[in-house]
Amino acid sequence: MTNDKAFEEPRNSRPVSRNHPQEVTELRSSGRTQRIMMKKCKKCLLPDIVPGADIDASGECSLCRARSPDAQATSAASKYREDLEATLKAARNHPGSEYDCVVPLSGGKDSLYLLHRLKVDYGLRVLAFTCDIDLPPVAWDNIRLALRKLDIDHVVFRPAYGFLTKLFRYLLCNQEARGAVYTVSYVYAPLFEGAAIRLALEKNIPLILAGYSPGQPEPERMLYEFDPALIRSEDWTPPHLVESGEFSADELAAFYNPLKLPENTTFPRYLAPYHAWDYDQDQVICKVTELGLVQRSSHASPIVSNYPINWLMMFSDLKHFGYNPYVPEFSALIREGKASRNYWRLATPVVNFMIRNKIGLGREVRRSMNWLSLAEADLRITLPRGAYDPPLLRRA
Ligand SMILES: [Zn+2]
Predict the structure, then answer these.
(1) Looking at per-residue confidence, does 210 or 69 come out higher?
(2) Cβ contacts of 81 within 8 Å, gap of 6 or more
(3) In degrees to the nearest 10, what's the CA dihedral of 312, 318, 323, 329?
(4) Which residues 6+ apart lie within 8 Å of 58 measured at CB?
(5) What percent of the chain has pLDDT over 90?
(6) Were both Cys, which of 33, 211, 332, 392 would link to 110 (CB 3.0–4.6 Å)?
């Protein structure tokens, strides 16, 4: 993908002090690959290449500069906490149902620890639910170990392989403006979130509790709770998939659509407890290791338990945007003291290097390209922002 002749001197030749972290990145624009030195915010590691980062002479980004003790966020969190405590208490031994809550389980540290909190600390009858969309083996090891340890029932839904292959391939060849991670995540997340809602409806379970950490998913989709209007009255079928004419009605029926449900349906609430509780990434890794929900702490790493196809999505975005699309999310956690700056200062450049060169964990890039019969030139942004978003989110 690189063309040596096209390399240019680092765009930013101003000397930068050792305090200011940097990383060499490659950016492809108008058919040329440029190598540029990317400065990063000294506090949260946000790269200057991220739109709006605006790193000043002192080395701080605009988001860190704007940060003051955020009274609004604190009061929102305490409101969420109050609601969550009351909701979990009321859900215990929910009459007319075998279970009190569905917990979507990916095998990542956050969903594993959530199972423990709900079953052990809150005494809820938990039904774990895994939508098997290309989960890595380490995630399955974690799932088996944790479920055995916690003695929790489990349902697995595996969408048809041919459909998933076709869907991923189509999305990567027809990305919306925000790139591959956004496009693919926000089509497949609704796919498994919708499957969890269907399971809750079928078993009359009042609550779905997801292990999303602060910063996940996109705030316009959900913070602490999915907008009930989204669950009750919005077709989740991505509009562009319908317009494309590439997918049959049967295939599109994989997406959740409450408009097809009977009028007297009682809908579950869909909450993300980590948005209400104090969250600390390192602490969750320690806890799941201590509790024996993973074999060793490396199995709780967000890098290792990643969906394998994510490596290809990150590869595509690195090529188009020059920075790792997960970096703004992790920078936000660092800014809020919820993730370790030292860990990500070292890990991000290593991860990006592996992805670009398809080595180490980055070998998954090649595996996914073979799986989906894709060449690098097929990874294209062709659609406007929001092409796959349900209308309710487009209006947001
Ligand atoms: Zn910053």
Answers:
(1) 210
(2) 276, 277
(3) -20
(4) 42
(5) 70
(6) 211
From the CA of 63, how far away is ligand 1's center (Å)?
6
Confidence of residue 13 (pLDDT cuts 50, 70, 90): very low
Instruction: Return the CA Rg of the chain.
Output: 21
Contact yes or no for 382/175 (Cβ under 8 A): yes
Q: SS3 for 156? A: strand
State pLDDT tens for residues 259-310. Answer: 999 999 999 999 999 999 988 888 999 999 999 999 888 888 877 767 889 9
Measured CA to CA, the distance from residue 157 to residue 135 in angstroms comes to: 12
Which of 384, 369, 383, 373 minimizes the C-alpha distance to 1? 369
Q: Give the Å distance between the CA of 168 and the centre of ligand 1.
A: 33
Q: Which two tokens stand for residue 271?
A: 């909450």
Cα 199 to chain center, whole Å?
A: 21
Q: How far is the CA of 50 from the centre of ligand 1 (A)?
A: 11
**Count of residues for the chain?**
396
Tell me the CA–centroid distance for residue 59 and ligand 1, in Å: 8
pTM, 2 dp: 0.85
Range scoring the smallest mean pLDDT among 96-110, 194-208, 294-308, 357-371: 294-308
Q: How many Å apart are CA 90 and CA 344, to the nearest integer?
A: 39
Tokens representing residue 330 in the block: 């992790």
Angstrom distance (rounded) from CA 301 to CA 326: 14
Sheet holding 126-131, edge to edge: 153-157, 126-131, 101-104, 207-209, 269-271
**Mean pLDDT over the full length of the chain:** 89
- Domains in the chain, CATH or no CATH each: 73-291 (3.40.50.620)
d(CA 270, ligand 1 centre) in Å: 31
How far apart are the two ends of the chain, measured CA to CA in Å?
37
119: amino acid identity, one letter: K
Q: Say whether 72 sits in a helix, a strand or coil.
A: helix
Query: 225 CA to middle of ligand 1, Å?
Result: 27
* Residue appearing with tokens 């605006």: 54
